[in-house]
UniProtKB/TrEMBL annotation:
The lineage of its organism: Bacteria, Pseudomonadati, Pseudomonadota, Alphaproteobacteria, Hyphomicrobiales. It comes from the Bacteria. CDD domains: PBP2_TMBP_like (cd13585). This is Sugar ABC transporter substrate-binding protein. InterPro entries: Bact_solute-bd_prot1 (IPR050490), SBP (IPR006059). The keyword Oxidoreductase does not apply. It comes from Roseibium salinum.
Length: 418
């Protein structure tokens, strides 16, 4: 009894009682056991720094996260802080707190990279609806041994070299040039190739028309179709998703893989560092490449009853050291200036991503996630029709026209709401 009284007295001495404890709810939506453990440890450090604060972590498996989170919000079970994917920001933008003023007053606000600030404000160019925690930026993995065996003396710098090198590797017995992602999540590859061959990554022209069926874009779509139909990618890659393409690379089946830094975790576990490297995506006829960039970040709902404490949690998770740890374990490019000087990132493998971020010829492409139906387009329409194109059931032009018609209509609807 005396010990209990002493414990309670200690809590009162610290300035709070059990009845006064603050509880925050944090929802994560891109989950894995390892990832959740990193988040849990960072949250425990936050709780230790803020006595009397408890953070409830709700983990939603990514495959069902969109629907489950929408159901939570519709039912009034709204978190204080949420892991917000870029493609969701347009849906919830009116319910997320503008973080601009808090970032301006934050001790680490001045070290956020410009790309981080731009992406924080990507829904309207002004309102910071989240702090991104890192970037999923495309670059090109290449297998040094396979290129050497095929007589290719350097990784491809242009789209023409990319096709030629893929052809050369595919002439080796049981080997292929490119780990094509023809299944779920494959839209990024198609968009990159279309933009690179078209010479720009503007999704809509001045008249609000999609650029995806412009001649250069069609040529980019045809590039991937040719890569598959000529046998420079495995036949079953028409249905490959993330796990399959990454395994195709580290198993030595394919020489090239375009992916984000999260793929490096699995590749580095299974390949010797001297056997592979990462370079920027090949440039097109205009001398530029347009790798896609995606992100997620920490956002705060305006219904939070303790926005100051919610901001403290976001700031804690977004600080330079916590973010660097997160980036290393999750597989993203960190958000603070100077992070590339960390020994973990100063490698031949990471060089391709930092070169992409700093090179003028590489223009990161942000998907039009502000369109309400973009998620449906990416996960359903684009998946089905791109597979039809790979299998020769529709032409590159038909594919382009289908995509352009849908996106043009969606853009007009979005524009009317502005």
């Amino acid at each position: 009894m005396r010990g209990l009284i002493g414990a309670i007295s200690g809590l009162v001495f610290l300035g709070w009682t059990a009845a006064e404890a603050e509880t925050l709810k944090l929802v994560e939506v891109i989950t894995s056991p390892e990832r959740t453990e990193v988040l849990r440890k960072q949250v425990e450090a936050f709780e230790a720094d803020n006595p009397g604060t408890e953070v409830e972590i709700v983990s939603l498996p990514w495959g069902q996260a969109f629907e489950k989170f929408a159901t939570m919000v519709a039912g009034g079970d709204i978190p204080d802080v949420v892991e917000m994917p870029d493609r969701w920001a347009g849906i919830y933008k009116d319910r997320l707190v503008d973080l601009n003023s808090r970032i301006a007053e934050w001790e680490y606000g001045g070290t956020l990279t410009q790309k981080t600030l731009d992406m924080a404000r990507q829904t309207d160019g002004k309102t910071a609806r989240m702090i991104p925690y890192g970037f999923y930026l495309r670059a090109l993995f290449y297998n040094k041994k396979l290129l050497e065996q095929a007589g290719v003396d350097h990784p491809p710098r242009t789209m023409e070299e990319f096709m030629d090198a893929s052809r050369a590797v595919s002439e080796l017995d049981g080997k292929y040039g490119y780990c094509l992602r023809g299944g779920p999540g494959g839209l990024n590859g198609w968009i990159m190739m279309a933009a690179t061959m078209n010479g720009n990554n503007t999704f809509f022209d001045e008249n609000g028309q999609s650029t995806l069926n412009q001649p250069g874009s069609v040529e980019g779509l045809q590039f991937l179709i040719d890569m598959y139909q000529k046998g420079y990618a495995p036949k079953d890659s028409v249905s490959w998703g993330f796990n399959e393409i990454v395994a195709g690379f580290y198993s030595g089946t394919c020489a090239f893989l375009d992916q984000d830094p999260d793929a490096l975790i699995a590749v580095a576990e299974r390949m010797d560092a001297e056997d592979f490297a990462v370079v920027p995506m090949p440039v097109g006829p205009a001398g530029k490449a347009f790798p896609t960039i995606g992100f997620a970040g920490w956002a705060m709902f305006d219904s939070s009853e303790n926005q100051d404490l919610s901001w403290k949690l976001i700031a804690h998770l977004s600080g330079p050291e916590a973010n660097k740890e997160w980036a290393k374990r999750v597989g993203v490019i960190p958000i603070h200036e100077g992070a590339e000087q960390d020994p973990h990132f100063r490698t031949e493998q990471f060089a391709g991503w930092f070169e992409t971020l700093n090179g003028e010829e590489y223009v990161p492409t942000v998907m039009p996630t502000y369109l309400e139906q973009f998620g449906y387009f990416a996960d359903s329409i684009a998946l089905e029709t791109s597979q039809e194109a790979l299998l020769g059931q529709i032409s590159a032009q038909q594919l382009a026209d289908t995509w352009a018609a849908f996106l043009t209509e969606e853009y007009a609807r979005w524009k009317a709401q502005q």
